[in-house]
Amino acid sequence: MTAESPSHSEKNPYGSSAGQSGPERIAPGRIRTHHMAQFKEAGQRFTMLTAYDASIAGVFEEAGVELLLVGDSAANVMMKSGTTLPITVDEMLVFARSVVNGVSRPLVVADLPFGSYEASPQQALGTAVRFMKEAGVQAVKIEGGSERAETIRTLVGAGIPVMGHVGFTPQAEHALGGYRVQGRGDAGQKVIDDAVSVEEAGAFAVVMEMVPAAVAAEADEKLSIPTIGIGAGNVTTGQVLVWQDMLGLNAGRVPRFVKQYTDLRSVIADAVGQYRAEVESGEFPAEEHSF
Ligand code: KIV
Questions:
Q1: Catalytic positions
Q2: Which atom in ligand 1 lies closest to the alpha carbon of residue 242?
Q3: What is the pLDDT of residue 16?
């Protein structure tokens, strides 16, 4: 990133309400990868959320979410692992198949988990084919920048749409020294170059995680594919969050970039508490629930 670069607010095509509401908004019946470029071209923001099962995926479809990510964050939020590293391809496939079965409109993307694609483009191809065939996802996501270009080319060449993921890449958390913002200062240029490499290799979108907003803005301006931010400011074409974080289902601390839109944990705990109380008092099941 150069010192004389315009600020991201000057460059941000999403800064106004243009293209964000009203009849001109592009609203395909089923979201396909080519719509991503159209959204970018139109300056139309879109939403991606993680999902790991059919029920919640259906709710997110009803709410109009365009992309569902079967993230390897399933390791954290569904299995309570400290990192995303332990989850296996077979475990991810179960989550992915469930999400695919639960929706018809959103584009479903699955993460290739740690250890399932790094050895060679052929290893990545074998894993990605399993996700396409056995789970029925429409695209896969792989972490990494220029070092993944050959792999992305191989998958795209085989007809598998690929989403990139640059900046903070959770599978590399031990190499990166923990959960840390990437691309501060001079390191910003490397993040931008990585995003460019991913686009040049044929990815249809790229996640930018935990990078300064100015870096994300410059990358978004350079690319013709959409950037999807998580902890990257409001300058990217799309946004993604882990659903348990944004709906308040997780106990404990959430990252700074998360906004909690509700407190689902209390909502569920209250409802379940009421159920328990009614079971204990004999109020439930009532006559209308009995045969
Ligand atoms: O696994 C995941 O949920 C992700 C998002 C954080 C982008 O990769």
A1: 209
A2: 3
A3: 45
